[in-house]
Design brief:
The protein has helices at about 25-35, 55-65, 85-90, 130-140, 160-165, 170-180, and strands at about 1-5, 45, 75, 105, 110-115, 145-150, 185-190, 195-200, 205, 215, 225-230, 235-240, 245-250. It has about 260 residues and is α/β, with parallel strands linked by helices. Helix 1 runs parallel beside helix 2 and helix 4 packs parallel to helix 6. The structure holds fe (ii) ion (FE2). Fe (ii) ion (FE2) binds near residues 8, 10, 49, 80 and 191.
Length: about 260
């Protein structure tokens, strides 16, 4: 089953730039590429930071742009988002019984679960007792079915110093729940604005560049987050019984393909 992941679109009002780049132009280009190359994907999951400042106009812009995307979208929020404004703009978006932006999608490949790690007014992520209990119930219900988790904040450190200070706070409680159920096959995260992959407690994970700006590969700087303008990407993901494949597509690359 083919699905897509997009992360950290950081939209603002039309015409505004973020770090000298135009998030609307970038996302438009991303959607054009998907419509051309992967209109057959089952759905796309956005792993948060939809809006740079959580602004109402940014969410309305996203809704408008999504109207042109040929692939159905599931939206998650990140630290730059505002849950209330997001839910006002996307009143039909899935939410859990406690009002968090969390969902579980049943698919032939397994259960895709989206988590809401947003904590208002701070950049680190939280999964409070209510959100953890919801996750635990979902994992218990999934039983032997494969589970794929999608969440903005990584529940682990990656060596990018300042980013590690604003990762998920509730790492231990999250790890305990995931370990107890033993059915999570892969964790798709956002927040890091670059390609990072590996495993955590024997569970593979992957991340991808944002569609606008990136975080530099800098393991030294401790004070602030060094940025970069490395190329953006979206991920083309194949969920199969015996494998999970994650390919990155740099949608700004316009060089022609050729036979090797
Ligand atoms: Fe971000």
């Amino acid at each position: 089953m083919k699905i897509l992941q997009i992360s950290d679109t950081h939209l603002v009002a039309p015409g505004e730039e973020v770090y000298g780049l135009d998030p609307m132009a970038r996302l438009t280009s991303c959607f054009d590429d998907i419509n051309e190359q992967h209109p057959d994907a089952e759905f796309v999951v956005f792993t948060g930071d939809l809006a740079h400042r959580g602004g109402e106009r940014a969410y309305h812009l996203l809704a408008e742009l999504l109207g042109r995307l040929k692939v159905p979208a599931y939206l998650l929020i990140g630290n730059h988002d505002d849950r209330g404004r997001f839910q006002a703009a996307f009143s039909g978006a899935p939410r859990d019984p406690n009002g968090f932006v969390q969902f579980a999608i049943g698919t032939p490949a397994g259960r895709c679960i989206g988590l809401d790690t947003n904590e208002p007014n701070v950049h680190y992520g939280r999964l409070c007792r209510q959100r953890l209990d919801w996750l635990d119930a979902q994992l218990r219900d999934a039983a032997d079915e494969p589970v794929y988790l999608f969440m903005h904040h990584p529940p682990f450190e990656v060596g990018l110093k300042e980013m590690d200070t604003i990762a998920l706070k509730d790492k231990g409680a999250f790890a305990d729940i995931v370990a107890a159920r033993n059915n999570v096959r892969h964790i798709f995260v956002g927040h890091l604005h670059r390609s990072v992959s590996g495993s955590w407690h024997n569970i593979p994970f992957s991340n991808l560049p944002g569609t606008n700006h990136q975080v530099a590969l800098d393991f030294v700087t401790e004070d602030g987050v060094p940025g970069s303008k490395e190329p953006p990407a979206y991920a083309v993901v194949f969920l199969e019984p015996a494998s999970t494949l994650v390919h990155l597509r740099n949608f700004t690359d316009r060089t022609a393909t050729f036979m090797l």
